[in-house]
Amino acid sequence: MSLSEHQTASLSAETVVVAAGRPPRERDQPVNPPITLSSTYFGTGPLGDGDRGYGRYSNPTWDPFEEALGELEGSDLPGLLYASGLAAVSSALSLIPAGGVLVMPSHSYSGSLVMASELAQKGFIELRTVDIADTDAVREAIAPAGPSAAASMLWLESPTYPMLGIADMQALADAAHAAGAIVVTDNTFSTPLVQQPLLLGSDVVLHSVTKYLAGHSDVVLGALVTSNPQIRSELLHHRIIHGGIAGPFEAWLALRGLRTLALRVERSQASAMVLAERLAAHPAIESIRFPGLPADPGHARAKEQMKGFGSIICIQVAATGALSGADAADKLVQALRLWLPATSLGGVESLIERRRRHTAEPASVPENLVRLSVGIENVEDLWSDLEQALKALDG
Ligand SMILES: *Cc1c(COP(=O)(O)O)cnc(C)c1O
After folding, report:
1. Per-residue model confidence as pLDDT tens digits over 326-356
2. Which candidate in 93, 165, 189, 389 could, as Cys together with 160 as Cys, close a disulfide (CB 3.0–4.6 Å)?
3. What's the Cα-to-Cα distance from 180 to each of 50, 100, 168, 176, 186, rounded to whole Å?
4. Is the CB of 222 under 6 A from ligand 1?
5. Does any ligand 1 atom lie closer than 6 A to the CB of residue 210?
6. Separation CA 293–CA 279 (nearest Å)
7. Domains in the chain and their CATH numbers?
8. Which residues are the active-site residues?
9. What is the rounded (10 degree) CA torsion for 63, 69, 70, 72?
């Protein structure tokens, strides 16, 4: 690679996303790494640590992205790419010993919650779900006063999905470590440009690379990052043996997407702030969650541990004379012409959906809750579209 970790350590994240993971600065080298399509590698000796071995163990196309992501999250070790965010969740959960206790936000990403619940139903782990914004309640779940066992793992999402609750990440990591638990943070919503969980005490950071990091809604990928060599080698072993590996083409697309991450995050965060302020003042909106709004319950905490407030907004649509809140929310989504009605988030295009249309969504998520993932279009175009669709709710 052209810049060693040493050299890029002094560069800002906005530069690292552009400069990291390029081929050597030598005459006639390409400026972008190639895609390596090979299931095995020429080998002359016995398999050693440095050998690539086989296509499930390693692929040169993964390396630039893994190095860049490790560096962005503040680790000395490269990240690990996976076939999807959920493959990364599976690998992270494998760190819990048999019968161990997992403490997880009750509003975690639905797939993560389903996986953890199924492990608990089969008796492999014990699951305790908590309101992650309530620090004392989480502390109690990690190390209960009574005879119940202390946690083996604390799972953090902040902001949570889709209620946008904000955890006191450092305080909770300290409590988890005091109880002997490891801390995994799903940082998909924030990206390392907005929040660096390893620097706030987490042991492992998880990304659905599908979302902001790749950023164009054209790949499904996941990643984990840790600065603990022991944990990394356990995760790597899990990836090799369980086989949730990334395709080389997807890995290459993710690096290509990462190049513009700083610009995309800057634009979408700025637009989200503008839209949140306007939505908060709109009579058709019953309530809004966006940590950037000073009135939001998570605002002060988010301001301390994030650089910006992300670009996910959740609104609850008010019932009208004729429509329930849920029906009004559906009608709003259908009346939009520019915003795309689709699940997922973090792409260049703005997406919107009513969350409870997913049957896996917890019943504690209100029926009229609509999640907006703000993209990089012109903010006034985004607002005009929302405004005309909100107006259609009256008619
Ligand atoms: C999408 C998502 C996941 C799952 O990732 P996939 O790439 O869809 O497997 C996990 N966590 C969060 C916060 C997500 O948004």
Report:
1. 999 999 999 999 999 999 999 999 999 998 8
2. 165
3. 33, 11, 18, 6, 20
4. yes
5. yes
6. 11
7. 3-258 (3.40.640.10), 262-392 (3.90.1150.10)
8. 56, 109, 186, 211
9. 140
